[in-house]
């Protein structure tokens, strides 16, 4: 499994990078500059590293929760672009992507640590 971790992280990061470009350039029709690509790349790199690190430390529950949150974040990202035509759709979409994915990461880590604590307590009680 360890040899596949970088592939999973790379695929997750690449997918998020492509989805951000697709949403911003294609759906909004915004001309992207170097700083946009740089910001998208940093976010995608962070997402890919988080996914790979969660799997490296065998945090499977946290990984699944984070991936669900990331899918929901991108769904809200695209929904905001498509439904909010009053001029704030782009801002709301990008902010919701960042907030939902960050919230999902926080919830995922908290849930994983609670599960680890319960497993540790169970092992202590059985010993």
UniProtKB/TrEMBL annotation:
> What are the transmembrane regions?
5-25, 37-57, 64-82, 94-118
Give the keywords, sorted: Membrane, Transmembrane, Transmembrane helix
Instruction: Please indicate which superkingdom the organism of origin belongs to.
Output: Bacteria
UniProt protein name:
Permease
